[in-house]
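Same chain as my last thread, 97 residues:
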Amino acid sequence: MWIRGGTRRVVLYTCNRRRPGVGSDRTVPLVKLIVILMLVAIVVSLGSALYQLSRGTGDSGKMLRALTWRISLSVALFILLLVAYSFGLIRPHAITP
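reply #2:
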């Protein structure tokens, strides 16, 4: 959307439009790769905690450490998705049948 103000033109970006120069064709697959790697790390951490729980040796410190890593990775992934969306690197899409 363009707004004319005197001799200057001011460009207003809406949230659902892609900003020019941000999110080139190479950065979008990089963001997707980082998201996938973080999801895999979250699942591995959860599996490690499950293994420590099922071993039954009573070493709750390792299980606690694995669950702490999982929570930290989940929060970091959420923040990454918010930042990537705000910079226009990822866009939501409609789910169509």
